[in-house]
Amino acid sequence: xxxxxxxxxxxxxxxxxxxxxxxxxxxxxxxxxxxxxxxxxxxxxxxxxxxxxxxxxxxxxxxxxxxxxxxxxxxxxxxxxxxxxxxxxxxxxxxxxxxxxxxxxxxxxxxxxxxxxxxxxx
Amino acid sequence: xxxxxxxxxxxxxxxxxxxxxxxxxxxxxxxxxxxxxxxxxxxxxxxxxxxxxxxxxxxxxxxxxxxxxxxxxxxxxxxxxxxxxxxxxxxxxxxxxxxxxxxxxxxxxxxxxxxxxxxxxxxxxxxxxxxxxxxxxxxxxxxxxxxxxxxxxxxxxxxxxxxxxxxxxxxxxxxxxxxxxxxxxxxxxxxxxxxxxxxxxxxxxxxxxxxxxxxxxxxxxxxxxxxxxxxxxxxxxxxxxxxxxxxxxxxxxxxxxxxxxxxxxxxxxxxxxxxxxxxxxxxxxxxxxxxxxxxxxxxxxxxxxxxxxxxxxxxxxxxxxxxxxxxxxxxxxxxxxxxxxxxxxxxxxxxxxxxxxxxxxxxxxxxxxxxxxxxxxxxxxxxxxxxxxxxxxxxxxxxxxxxxxxxxxxxxxxxxxxxxxxxxxxxxxxxxxxxxxxxxxxxxxxxxxxxxxxxxxxxxxxxxxxxxxxxxxxxxxxxxxxxxxxxxxxxxxxxxxxxxxxxxxxxxxxxxxxx
Lengths: 122, 515
Fold this sequence. Notes:
Chain A is an alpha/beta fold. In chain A, 41% of the residues lie in helices and 21% in strands. Chain A has a single domain, classed as Response regulator (Rossmann fold, 3-Layer(aba) Sandwich). Chain A has a 5-stranded parallel β-sheet with strand order 2-1-3-4-5, sandwiched between helices. The longest helix of chain A has 11 residues, at 12-22. Chain A is globular, with a radius of gyration of 13 Å. Chain B folds into 4 domains: 4-147, Beta-Lactamase (2-Layer Sandwich); 166-268, PAS domain (Beta-Lactamase); 273-345; 353-511, Histidine kinase-like ATPase, C-terminal domain (Heat Shock Protein 90). The termini of chain B are far apart. Chain B: It comes from Croceibacterium selenioxidans.
């Protein structure tokens, strides 16, 4: 049994750290996208079980990307936001957009996979 | 000075009045009157206006000789007579006349004194004719009045000069808002045209101009101004900020002064506000920008130190541990900066709910146990058996507790004990965090809760903090309606108390019943 994850972040270093963190769980298979547009493009082919989406990105930001994902056939996979602005306000605002969850930055690399599995299994 | 004998012995025979014995009764009577008076007086008598004066009058002119006594005024008065002649001749026609504020210097080295000269006709009492036989002039020394008026004028000039050269706008209004005085800056600050502002007007008119421009907020200017006036009348002093539609920000300070008057002082704080906003934005932006690289650093270090990237040598493990601890410190600092930024700008949200402090503190102590153990400190909870219910924000109270425990642990030596105690005192819940460490130096106590305050930053132990922890604690506790303070009564170590108002038992029971 394995889960497919799409991690979307414009920061290459963060993509790499997140990928390694997530792959500490051997049942998580990760692909990364460097922008919202790239993520939309990867969706039909990769068909992820969960999208981890950075909020602040140039051009198409997290919320805009989420909106596009929702337009895909079947409404697309569940989306969890990853954000440096994980204050109560921000989290509530993001949840209201239809996100499955919000994970704050900096995340704990040893806990990231655990958190993600919790969303996958719920 | 001369006396009555000198007067009587004067060679009157040489004057047009002739010997005293032959004078009419009325002239004798008038001479008795003026010679007996301390008030400076003189008379002009008869057709050639013979000059008769008393000692007080002579003193005004600083003369000692009596050679002018009884002589025609035009022979002795010089050019002044030429000026006054017409007016004095009219007094001989029966009209009174007053010469005001006439300046005289008796001697070169004396200051000018000022007099009012009041001229009155003297009718012929014997009734032999209806002509005026003389003119009596009584003089009054008005020097003090003149000097006072001059001083007032000078004071006003100095006041006006001072007021127009300060950067603050200043205005003084009566209790009924009548405008008494104001300076140039005041008009400039509020953008009033010179013809719009005048003494004696009601300041309400000016407030209406300001409100009409939308500078006092949206709405009907009359309603806004009346509400403002009502608010002003209910307090001794106050400070308000006026954001003008042209972008100017004014800080307006009002204070009741004597006699029910209000003093208004306006300051242009546009630059200060802009600078403060830029600073806040900078702190906020920098803090957020720091989070991204910090996430990468701490993430990478976390994976490596967990051995998930392969075995490490003992030396590499120690170095990774140092790097990890320091990146954690940076994360705490950034989080603290963001928290203080939010607390200061009022953007920190509080989720108030009824909380059992006994349960919450138990949880907080458990959460902070690993940190205490790392420092070799025995963290003890001394709680109540009964629930202690307050209104609070769970997350923020845990943050306060974590800060206090973290400080207590840092200042304790290995093997030390830190106690977290909860008690109810009257209508308040008191949380105390007690350590037996080095205590807080007296010199540091008054700035303990300030931002970026750290005692003895050379001490490596203390450097672990950001200097923001207690400032954050105080902001949070303040906003929850509580108090936080350092107990200065303890003999060793440091004890911090936090008190929060208890929720009444009755209320709690009622709410539970509803649920």
